[in-house]
Write a structure and sequence with these properties.
Elements lengths: L2 E4 L1 H17 L3 E5 L7 H9 L4 E4 L2 H10 L4 E4 L8 H7 L2 E4 L2 H14 L3 E6 L14 H6 L7 E7 L12 H18 L5 E3 L1 E2 L3 H5 L9 E4 L1 H5 L1 E2 L4 E2 L8 E14 L25 E7 L11 E3 L5 E5 L4 E4 L12 E6 L1 H8 L5 E4 L1
Parallel strand pairs: 1-19, 2-3, 2-10, 3-4, 4-5, 5-6, 6-7, 7-8, 9-10
Antiparallel strand pairs: 1-13, 11-12, 13-14, 13-18, 14-17, 15-18, 16-17
Helix pairs in contact: 3-4, 4-5
Pfam family, one: Ala_racemase_N
Protein name: Alanine racemase N-terminal domain-containing protein
Keywords: Isomerase, Pyridoxal phosphate
């Protein structure tokens, strides 16, 4: 069976790297755990790093975090649905919000549960996902700042998640100015400008982060060590915290080209024929993982001497050429992963998860 390995030491190294950087800039931060898809074993590894704040987009995952360690501050990072308000208030200490109606529901539920629920108001800064338009922010805040059992602890924004709009110093300064305007107008303190995600880290690395930004929500860079501006590994971090291992379940020398009448496969793809390849053969390996688990485009073959030819629902097909590494049935093949590949595999119940 295919399995995914989390390398504990490399994860710790990445965490220590980020913690040192944020401490030097006097910036608070939490870890976004949604990549782990609620896996209790992996969530415990995360908490054991010394994490005090965890963010997730699934309330059920926040419930598991509270079961493991009730002292971890939990943050729900997408707009809440009405039917989940009760669970939200029960399991999330903080939530990101941009809908007045929803915040009123949260206020009512927090009163019932005898809790004060913390809010980060999300502000639209150009990527056009969630967020209150800046022109409406003061009016929006005026309608919620005195709601019972609600405490506004920050203004936040999300960039690069939908249309690929990148963070900039100007955009983040604007968010900081919104905070100052609200504080002056309403004589209220808003502790956080939560404008940082993994994609914002390069601004900090290059000393371009405005001083007003004092809170980050980090997932991808922790797990993959990546500079999302330049799509490269950050020096001093690991890009292989996660690795995928899949077993060879068939190995045959076969023609390079299919034979017969061609039609679309179940994925809607039709093979393209390169007539220069007629009569040539190569070794093909079938692995015990498929499209149900991961899209092959998110896999990074460790061995550059083979190529991924394609996949069906449960099998991945490799072209090994002359098979110079002498792979055989029963051997495992190792892959690195892109973020979306790891997300798919961690969400798959068909792939074992291992901590090393």
């Amino acid at each position: 069976m295919a399995y995914l390995t989390l390398h504990k030491k490399k994860l710790q190294d990445n965490f220590d790297f980020l913690k040192k950087m944020f401490d030097e800039h006097d910036v608070s931060w939490g870890i976004v755990s949604k990549l782990l898809c609620g896996n209790r074993m992996l969530l415990k590894e995360l908490i054991d790093l010394g994490v005090h704040e965890i963010h997730d987009s699934r309330i059920s995952n926040l419930a598991k975090i509270k079961e493991i360690d009730p002292n971890v501050q939990t943050v729900y990072i997408k707009p809440a649905s009405k039917r989940n308000i009760g669970k939200l208030v029960k399991y999330a200490d903080v939530s990101l919000n941009s809908e007045l109606t929803t915040i009123r529901w949260i206020s009512e539920e927090a009163q019932k549960q005898g809790k004060t629920h913390k809010i980060i108001i999300m502000v639209e800064t150009g990527d056009l996902r969630e967020g209150v338009m800046g022109d409406h922010l003061v009016e929006f805040y005026a309608q919620i700042f005195e709601l019972p059992n609600i405490e506004v602890i920050g203004l936040g924004t999300n960039l690069n998640c939908l249309n690929g709009v990148m963070p900039s110093t100007d955009k983040l300064i604007q968010l900081s100015l919104y905070k100052q305007i609200i504080e002056l107008k309403f004589n209220k303190q808003i502790p956080w400008v939560s404008a940082g995600t993994s994609v914002t880290i390069p601004l900090m690395l290059h000393q371009q982060l405005p001083k007003g930004v004092n809170h980050f929500r980090v997932g991808e860079t922790l797990f993959f060590g990546v500079d999302l501006f330049e799509e490269k590994l950050i020096e001093g971090m690991h890009g292989d915290v996660f690795e995928l291992f899949a077993e060879i379940i068939e190995m045959q020398e076969k023609p390079l080209l299919p034979s017969g009448i061609l039609a679309a496969n179940p994925q809607g793809e039709t093979a393209e024929i390169d007539e220069s390849l007629y009569g040539r053969t190569s070794y093909r390996a079938i692995l015990d993982i498929g499209l149900l688990d991961v899209d092959p485009k998110y896999l990074i073959p460790e061995d550059g001497e083979f190529e991924i030819l394609g996949a069906s629902s449960d099998m991945l097909i490799l072209n090994l050429g002359d098979n110079p590494k002498k792979y055989k049935v029963g051997d495992t093949v190792k892959f690195g992963l892109k973020y979306m590949g790891a997300l798919s595999i961690l969400n798959s119940s068909y792939v074992d998860k291992v901590v090393n």
